[in-house]
C-alpha cells in the first residue's frame, strides 16, 4: 500500500502526534511492507509556525527506519498580521474567523503546492487538527481523487483551537476518520458526523522499552533513594496542569516531607512560568522539584521506573500517551475527569481522576496512593494488562491499516465502529 501522510512534525520533533505517526509508520513498513511517505515541516514544535526565532531542522528528504520523510520550510512572516486579524474576527464572531484562526495556527508551507499536484498514493492521511496540513491533504483528494483519512486528535475543551467550522467541514469531506477515544467519537456524532465513518483506534506504546528499566541511575543522579517520587512527563505546556501539580506538592510535603516531584518534558514558551513557580517555593522544598528538559526514550523508561506515582493533570488531551507509558512501567496514574482522559483511565481500576485545576483534590489523590502501596501495585498492574490487550504499537498499526483499507474500498475486519 502506498500511504501519503501529512503531519505537523516528525522525529526528532517532539509531541504526542509526532510520536504516534512515527511509530505507526515504522510498524506499517516493518510488518506489512507498505510504502509510507511523510510530508512534514522542519519545526521541532508548533510554536515555530507563528513565532520567529524558533530552532528548526534542515529541510529536504531523508529515510528513517524505512519511512520516507520530506521536510518543508515553515513560512511564518505573516504571523503578526494573522494574529491581529484572527483576534479581531474571533472576538467579534465575524465571518472568516474560522479561516483566520486556521491560517494563524499554520503551518504555512508554500512549497507544498507542487507536491499536491504531483501526489501519487493509494490513500492520503493527515494528522492533526486544528493545523493547516489537514487542508493540504484534503486538496489532494479534491484534485487527485485519492481516498482521504483524517486523524483529528481533537481537544473539544479548547474552544479557540477546535470550535471551528472548517474542522467539521473537512471531517465530513473525508472518507474515514480515526478517533483516539470513544469520547472523541461521541463528540463528533453529537456534531452531526456520520458514525459509520468514525473508527476508534487508540494510541500505543512499546512495553518492551520499559521492561528492563529499574530507575536506579535516575535515583542516584537526583538523590531520590528512599524518597516518594511523583512524576510528570509531557511537554511543558500551559494546559498540562503542571502549575496545579506544583501547588499540590505543598500539601503532599506536609505528610511526606521527603517527597520529590519530577517534571520531565520538552520546554515551551510556558516554561518560564514553571521556573517562576518553583523559585517561589520555600527554600526548604525548592530543591525537591526536579526539572528534566530533554531525554531519550530509554531515559524516559528510567524516569518512570524511578517513580512511585505518575500524575498528568492536563486540562485536555486527545488521548494521553504518557498514561500508557506509565502503565508499561506498571505505575498508578492520575489524570483529570474531563474530556478524552476520562475514557482512557478506568477510575479506581487502573488510575485515579481529579478535577482540572483542583490542586487540593490532586494532592488527596497523590496522598491516597502514597499511603497505600497495595493500591499503587493493583492500579499499575491493571493498567499494564489493559495496555497489553489494547495499546501496543503492533495492535494500533493494524487498526490504522484497516481504516486505510476501508477508505480504499477494501474492507478490513473486526474493527470497532
Describe it for me?
This protein is α/β, with parallel strands linked by helices and 417 residues long. The protein has two domains: 2-204 and 392-407, Rossmann fold (3-Layer(aba) Sandwich); 207-390, 3-Layer(aba) Sandwich (Rossmann fold). Helix content is 44%, strand content 16%. The protein contains 19 helices and 14 strands. The protein is globular, with a radius of gyration of 21 Å. Mean pLDDT is 95; it is low at 413-417.
Q: What ranges have pLDDT less than 50 throughout 5 or more consecutive residues?
A: 413-417
Q: Give the termini separation.
A: 23 Å
Number of domains: 2
Alpha-carbon Rg, integer: 21 Å
Please outline the major beta sheet. 8 strands, mixed
What is the number of strand segments?
14
Beta-sheet strand percentage? 15-25%
- State the helix count: 19
Indicate the structural class: alpha/beta
Compute the average pLDDT.
95
CATH class type of the largest domain: Alpha Beta
Q: Strand order within the widest sheet?
A: 3-4-2-1-5-6-7-8
Q: Percent of residues in helical segments?
A: 40-55%
| Corresponding CATH superfamily of the largest domain | Glycogen Phosphorylase B
CATH architecture of the largest domain: 3-Layer(aba) Sandwich
CATH topology of the largest domain: Rossmann fold
The global form is: globular
Keywords:
417 residues; alpha/beta; Rossmann fold; 2 domains; six-stranded parallel beta sheet; 16% strand; globular
Ordered list of secondary-structure elements with their pairings:
Layout: E1 2-7, H1 16-32, E2 35-41, E3 60-64, E4 67-72, H2 79-91, H3 97-105, H4 113-118, E5 123-127, H5 133-144, E6 148-151, H6 159-162, H7 165-173, E7 176-179, H8 182-190, E8 198-200, H9 207-211, H10 216-221, E9 229-233, H11 242-255, E10 260-264, H12 271-279, H13 283-286, E11 289-292, H14 297-305, E12 309-311, H15 321-328, E13 333-336, H16 341-344, E14 351-354, H17 359-371, H18 373-390, H19 393-407
Parallel strand pairs: 1-2, 1-5, 2-4, 5-6, 6-7, 7-8, 9-10, 9-12, 10-11, 12-13, 13-14
Antiparallel strand pairs: 3-4
